[in-house]
Amino acid sequence: MTGDGGHAGRPLWVDLVIIALAFVVFVTLLLLGNWQMRRLEWKLDLTEAVETRAYGDPVSVEGLVQPPEYLRVVADGTWRHDLALRVKAVTELGAGSWVMTPLEGADRTVWVNRGFVPSGLDPTEWTRPEGPVEVTGLVRESRPGGTLLESNDPEAGRWVSADIPEMSRTAGINAARYFIDADHQGEPAAWPRGGLTKLEFRNTHLSYALTWYAMAALFLGAMAYVIRQRVRKSGVVEEQ
């Protein structure tokens, strides 16, 4: 017979701690499921934005203060190749960089991602159009700071994300706070290789959410069974 209400001599507080920890695990599984549902909503909104903006007729950037991301736009100006920066990238073409170049227009300057160049490619092999040009592409938002694993180092000229305000500060220009992912220009084999914006997004958030919710339900059922067995066995011990 146990006098402290525990099971087989185990103190009651131990059971309470186990139950508390089990509750934390259960809540965590639910929160993970809820997070995946929020990610699902975000992914669906992103897909809708791409479908409604990216494939329409391009609109002029003139007069657009902060156009929505993935809007197809057209901009006129002259390239500032002397201020071009390279942003680390990995694409279907391999490892390399995006060539970010200011496009200086009559009313505004906007950074343009001219496209991808592979590592080791001599810059003399890049195309460098001179004079007035017209660029068509997709609006993209600034990517401040860097990536999850790496940070931008403007002073060292090391860029892993297109942090537009910092790039403008480094280049000493006043430019729009967004940039344009340009369509490919020139011969098909020319570098930089534009038109590589990812417009199809893998969406597995619903299946992940259902998995987390199923795990939570199974865990709750298992804990209910364990608690029931503990209570039943404790009753038997008390009767003895």
Name of the CATH architecture of the largest domain: Beta Barrel
Please tally the helical runs, counting DSSP H or I stretches of 4 or more residues. Answer: 3
The coarse silhouette is elongated
* Proportion of beta-strand residues: 15-25%
Range of helix content:
25-40%
Number of strands: 7
> Total domains, how many?
2
In the predicted model, the low-confidence regions spanning at least 5 consecutive residues are 1-7
* The CATH topology of the largest domain: OB fold (Dihydrolipoamide Acetyltransferase, E2P)
Output the structural class. alpha+beta
Radius of gyration: 28 Å
Cα-to-Cα separation, first versus last residue: 6 Å
The strand order across the widest sheet is: 2-4-5-7-6
Mean pLDDT: 84
**How is the biggest beta sheet arranged?**
5 strands, mixed, barrel
Describe the structure.
The chain is an alpha+beta fold. The protein has 2 domains: 72 residues; 127 residues, OB fold (Dihydrolipoamide Acetyltransferase, E2P) (Beta Barrel), CATH 2.40.50. It has 3 helices and 7 strands; from the N terminus they run H-E-E-E-E-E-E-H-E-H. Strands 2-4-5-7-6 form a 5-stranded mixed beta barrel. The N and C termini lie close together (6 Å). The N terminus is likely disordered.
